[in-house]
Amino acid sequence: MSAPRAASPVLDRLRIGSAPDSWGVWFPDDARQVPWQRFLDEVAEAGYAWIELGPYGYLPTDPAALRAETDRRDLKVSAGTVFTSLHHGPSVWDATWTHVREVATLTRAMGAGHLVVIPSFWRDDKTAEIIEPPELTVEQWKHLTTGMERLGKRVRDEFGLDIVVHPHADTHLDTEEHVARFLDVTDSDLVNLCLDTGHYAYCGGDSVKLIRTYGERIGYLHLKQVDPDVLADVVAKGTPFGPAVQQGVMCEPPLGVPALSPVLEAAQELDVDLFAIVEQDMYPCPPDRPFPIAQRTRRFLRSCGA
């Protein structure tokens, strides 16, 4: 007789959601993306209660209109997202704040509490052309860290939102070394981390180790996996992130790495409420592909206790 199967832990501190990214949405307006109405219909039908806004302008930007759409599908918004180039210093502040204020206004109006902040790519996000050096100078690191602290303070003071900075492939905040350097010199009262398990693995990091080492700085999770075989090819050839996504480097769980159960359990042990938002990069993709993946992923996460 086989031993009884151990029950999955109850991951009751994690609030599971998904995002437009899981439907192949990278841009506010793109003919290769599904219409926003279809995204909202399918994310709700797949069993998710929480969503992110995605690229600003993809979903309706009028709060009343968007709330009507989310309410009738029993959806709630967990965060908005902004891209920043704060490593360029004070010269970009005004333009940065204009964009952040726009997104933060909608985020707050939708009752969300977080703003996911992604550093700008050092490659062009459509052509993959290298547009600046992949390593920052000492001065640029100082601009990045102090700029994020300034942003965190102003966003909190004016909107009551917490910023969570998202390490991301093909940005200056990517590897374990860069993430540790960033966290070690930034104020935890102003800046915390959105740990994206897929991007961190893509860049060679260990998500469980990061949670165990910097647990008090983990303010938000993106759940994602990478295909190790595709990743090995990407690393060997130096393939840019966009083409790597088209190769299928990001895959649905539980087919890739990191294993998500240990990540979720480590996050639960922090004993704080955390959003855990599914994102599977697959721009561009056929319009009928995302929904069944979203359903399977939600079932898988339930089997993990989430």
TrEMBL record:
Keywords: Isomerase. GO terms for molecular function: isomerase activity. Signal peptide: none annotated. The keyword Isomerase applies. InterPro entries: IolE/XylAMocC-like, Xyl_isomerase-like_sf, Xyl_isomerase-like_TIM-brl. The keyword Isomerase applies. SUPFAM superfamilies: Xylose isomerase-like. Residues 40-302 form the Xylose isomerase-like TIM barrel domain. This is Sugar phosphate isomerase/epimerase. The lineage of its organism: Bacteria, Bacillati, Actinomycetota, Actinomycetes, Kitasatosporales.
